[in-house]
Amino acid sequence: MQFTQEDTIYVATNHGCLYHARLLSSGNVRWTELVRIPEEGPIITMDVMSGGKVRESCALDDWVALGDGKGNMTIVRVIGDMYNPHAGLNQSWKASPERQLLGAFWCKSLGYR
Fold this sequence. Notes:
Layout: E1 2-5, E2 8-12, E3 17-23, E4 29-36, E5 43-50, E6 59-68, E7 72-81, E8 84-94
Antiparallel strand pairs: 1-2, 2-3, 3-4, 5-6, 6-7, 7-8
């Protein structure tokens, strides 16, 4: 789990799903499934980099890095707005056989690379 704002959180599951959850003022939660990783293994690492310059206060431009227990890395770009988020770009690749995937993180100084 990772909060991006005081009322917005990304949740990755043991079944390979990435969700966007928005905490509503009524006390309810609005869940949106964004992506299901190809091999549906457990997601063991996640990092989020929020887009800095969005035109509207409710607009989304977040990048989520996911690593699963089978050595796959998936990058998801989340776009739309906080009320209707969706995955705009989704790319996966397998780590080298001799390497184990232990973590994923964004380095803001490198940008979206």
